[in-house]
Amino acid sequence: MIAQLLIPVALVLDVVGLGGMGALRGPWIGPGQAQAQAQAQARAQPIRAAAPAPTPAAAPDASRAEAARVARQVTDRAAAGVTRLLAQRRARQASKATLERTYQEQLRELDRLKRSRASWRRDRLVAGMKAQSQATAQKLSRVDAELRVIDGQVRAQRQALLAAIDRELAVASTAARRAALQRMRAPVAAALRPPPRKIILPDDSLDRLADPEELAEQIALIQQAERELRRERERLRQREERYARMSRLRDQRERASEMARLDGNEVRRTTGRPDGSRASSEGGGTGGVAGDAEDGAAPPGDPDPDPGAGADFGDSGGDSGFEQSSIILADVVDSTTIDALRRAGRSQSPKARAEAAGRARKQVESRLERLRRSRQLIQQHLRKLRAR
Amino acid sequence: MRAGRAGVAVVAASALAALAVLALAQPAAADDARWTLQLEGGAEYDSNIHRLEVREGDEVDTEGAPLTRLGARHRLSWRRVRTERLTLSTFGGLKLFTTASGQSENVAIASLDGGYEWNLRGRGAILGVQGSYYDAIPIEVVDPTGGLEGRTFRTAAGELTAAIAGEGGQRITALVGYRGFQYKPDPLFDWQGDHYGLLFQTTWWRGDPDVDDDAASIDLTAGYRISRRGYDSRARTSSCHEESAADPLCSAGTRLARSDLHHSLAAELVYTGRRVYGARYELSVNDSNSYGESLVRQRLHVGVTTELLREVYMTAEGTILVNVYLEPLLLARDEQARTFVSIDEENRNSLSLHLSRAIGGGWALEGRYAIFSNEFTNEELSFRRQTVYLGAIYRAGS
């Protein structure tokens, strides 16, 4: 049972490139070997689902169980392909890091040589070092190219995996497998989303000497920024509402627990002790089973008056949407809000997340209002220009 | 009257301490200090104020009485620098019964918890030191002839912790500490000793909020703790041939000091989405060298919190607690403790319903109903207790 639960978890970790399971399974690959391997593997095609999609309609003669079994094989094969490609990518990244270090050392050495006293020997050493650093730079370029190829393959393989998961979800017979597939799907889908881009805010000041064409272009840019900001505001509003609701629910739950702690539900009874003691062995007093009340695992979700601090104290692994918002809104909100968004993303406190989302949303709304006014002013000026 | 004044003094002292800590902390680092203050008060009716069991064949009337609950809580978190966090929480509470016979059940609670955490950046570890103190104080002289002695206690603990945080949100905490326990009615049950624990926390599953507005998460916490408890009393042994004999004379003293080894294992799953569902299981094993003191305790707690309508929140909780005594537990059948009944196991179950609604300005109204019983085991003894509470709560904070 535990093994069944752990397998999908390991696969998910591998698929999103966090687990390092692939690196753990195989022998360690040195930079040289990795380079040779990657050159060969970069040419290889991503592993695709070999079998056609096994749906009940496509396989009328097969039983549902058989369809589910085949679909599972396809999913597992696609997941293994992603895992293998990610292992290759990690090897290339390690190789790249090594080359970068070497390149930096060579540049430093070159700089040192150039600053030393001029001589024939120095010139010869400088020339040699230049050649070495150029060779390292070329290797780095090759590794970068290989990484780009692998990234493309990883993307294609993830798309294949996502399709395989969706197909298997349609035929999966057990709830446990469906849950495992859903767990596997979320990080794959997240990895396939396009990377967030910073919203570029156009110049919103009115240039009274500008041509109508320039003003029209400026208005179009402002409208584009407004659209992007409205989209981001909606995302923040959804997050704010969601996490505020979670926070309220957790507060209520904690409050109910607080009240229960004062119940003092221990029975008053006397035990048959010849020494006259009338207390039972349970301890006693108000507040639960005394002496044992604080043992064992403390319940999670104790209200933290400083929820934002959680990010610095290990409450990581949170909502990546906050990290994306911090990138998208880098030029829109102030630096403390960017910091709050990043911390909220790593925090597990719904309250911290709701507060950060709310703070950012208000600043986005303020910026939207400013852009709207500027746009109206420019549009007004443009109408006047065109009316002349 | 005197009891009332003492209780109010405890609550007032707690609130003042909270305000003092707040006043001291805020000027130091207004941006880095977070605090909450919570004041609560209300009226409750308790149908069995002495928590009496009714034995089969006995005609014992359980007594009900109204009471007042008051409380003040304060929590403070202060970060001197980003990698350090100081936390402090205090609580002062009071239960005051209005009837004369309920005076023996009056109790005040004072508790203080503090901790300091230091994040070792780049090493993925968090070191901490924490301490706690909890005191249940009787605020009326106990009537010694009533056989209903207060069961108040105080306990204090200090711990060192080391936590490792994983990138996926996992956190493993190891702790070592020392704890003392004083059972006020009987010093024979006082103990102190060291304890060691391991705690694992993770978000086991999380939905994608970009895809699903109702994306939920499941948090898992599991822990084990072992503690040595050295008592200020001698261990007892069974002196009868038949160990299960229901006779207190079968328990004889020894020259050995009583020493218990207490194991505690707990796991909790919390689902947070449109509703919060929680399930917690605890297993405790008390292995004692004293006859009649070993037991196995299992506790299962489940609960759900949801919004009913118009911001009215409901929390429904149920608990089943089963104690299995490894040697028979003797219970006196009469006031003079001349006849006894022995039990091998018993349970304590409870169901509670808590309703709350915010009314603005930091205020909220709340009501609670709870029923306690020993429904599933021990047919010889019957226990019933019901409580109904109605009160208000005020929250403020930064």
Overview of this protein structure:
The complex is a heterodimer of chains A (388) and B (398). Chain A has ten helices and no strands. With 388 residues, chain A is an all-alpha fold. Chain A has two domains: 2-192; 198-258 and 306-388, no CATH class. In chain A, helix 3 (31-43) crosses helix 5. Chain A starts with a helix and ends with a helix. The longest helix of chain B has 27 residues, at 2-28. Chain B starts with a helix and ends with a strand. Chain B has one helix and 17 strands. Chain B has two domains: 1-108, no CATH class; 109-397, Porin.
Keywords:
heterodimer; A: 388 residues; mainly alpha; B: 398 residues; mainly beta; 2 domains; 16-stranded antiparallel barrel
**What amount of the residues of chain A lies in strands?**
under 5%
What distance separates the N and C termini of chain A?
80 Å
Number of domains of chain B: 2
- Number of helix segments of chain A? 10
Strand runs of chain A, count: 0
Low-confidence stretches of chain B: 144-148
Main pleated sheet of chain B: 16 strands, antiparallel, barrel
**Helical residues, percent of chain A:** 55-70%
Q: What is the helix content of chain B?
A: under 10%
Instruction: Describe the oligomeric state of these chains in a short phrase.
Output: heterodimer
Q: Please trace the helix and strand order of chain A, writing H or E for each element.
A: HHHHHHHHHH
**What fraction strand of chain B?**
over 45%
| Main sheet record of chain A | none
Q: How many individual domains of chain A?
A: 2
Q: What is the global morphology of chain B?
A: globular
Question: How do the strands and helices of this protein lay out in sequence?
Answer:
The complex is a heterodimer of chains A (388) and B (398).
Chain A: H1 2-15, H2 21-25, H3 31-43, H4 64-115, H5 120-171, H6 175-192, H7 212-261, H8 320-328, H9 335-346, H10 350-387
Helix pairs in contact in A: 1-4, 1-6, 3-4, 3-5, 4-5, 5-6, 7-10, 8-9, 9-10
Chain B: H1 2-28, E1 33-46, E2 53-55, E3 65-78, E4 84-97, E5 107-120, E6 125-138, E7 153-165, E8 171-183, E9 191-206, E10 217-238, E11 251-272, E12 276-288, E13 295-309, E14 312-332, E15 340-360, E16 363-373, E17 381-397
Antiparallel strand pairs in B: 1-3, 1-17, 2-17, 3-4, 4-5, 5-6, 6-7, 7-8, 8-9, 9-10, 10-11, 11-12, 12-13, 13-14, 14-15, 15-16, 16-17
